[in-house]
Amino acid sequence: MIGRMWSVVLVLLLLAAPDLSAHGVSAADRAFMERGGLMAFLYLGAKHMVTGYDHLLFLVGVIFFLYRLKDVGTYVTLFAVGHSVTLLFGVLSGVHVNAYLVDAVIGLSVVYKGLDNLGAFRRWFSVQPNTRAAVLIFGFVHGFGLATKLQDFALPRPGLVAKIVAFNVGVEIGQFLALGAILIAMAYWRRTAAFERQAFVSNVVLMTCGFVLFGYQMSGYVLE
């Protein structure tokens, strides 16, 4: 049951992708951020992670076959470090990267985890990418994806460093909350007899979601 529900969730995310922007921020949240203080940035950072389906898809892929909390902590920490470094660097340095291209690579990060979980790299190319390095590198990309959106805001320079740090702390709080819910669902699902069969299908759907995200963002880049 959990496996089927999980696959349905992934399919819904896949179908919703063309109508969503992976790092989109509503007008209300944008105004709130431009006028708000540290707590506003903390709140919106957490909200971004909890509702950021591209981040959540990648995290699901990362922890899919991790059974020990120590391993989960290692990989999630690598992702958090990568995400934090480029978020802070991108906003504070003013380095601009095309948002569509960054989000397209984020889609490919989801494809990568789906393929990796299916053992495709070993089967097709007789190689196994360094999974820890890959998670860290894609963490850098995810952080740049958010930075490209924040760069469009009219954020006042006074106190900007503290606000961006608060936003990043909120992102990590949101990641912790989302990860907790995912781990509870995964732990229950893994105890079912159908997990192995449903795991294959779920990772195929996960990979497909990544391809759709990639195609959607590349279409936006070409049309723009």
Describe the structure.
- With 224 residues, the protein is an all-alpha fold.
- It has one domain.
- The protein is 80% helix and 0% strand.
- It contains 10 helices and no strands.
- It has helices at residues 2-16, 27-35, 38-51, 53-63, 69-93, 99-117, 120-125, 131-150, 160-190, 195-223.
- Helix 1 (2-16) runs parallel beside helix 10.
- The longest helix is centred in the C-terminal third of the chain and has 31 residues, at 160-190.
- It is globular and about 55 Å long.
- It starts with a helix and ends with a helix.
- Mean pLDDT is 84; it is low at 11-23.
What about the largest sheet? none
The gyration radius over C-alpha positions equals 17 Å
What distance lies between the first and last C-alpha atoms, to the nearest angstrom?
42 Å
The share of residues in extended strands comes to under 5%
Low-confidence stretches at least 5 residues in length (pLDDT < 50)?
11-23
Number of domains: 1
What is the helix content? over 70%
Q: What is the approximate shape?
A: globular
Order of helices and strands: HHHHHHHHHH
The structure class reads mainly alpha
Q: What's the total count of β strands?
A: 0
Mean pLDDT: 84
Which structural traits does this protein have?
single chain, 224 residues, mainly alpha, 80% helix, globular
Write a compact overview of the structure shown.
Helices cover 80% and strands 0% of the residues. It is mainly alpha-helical.
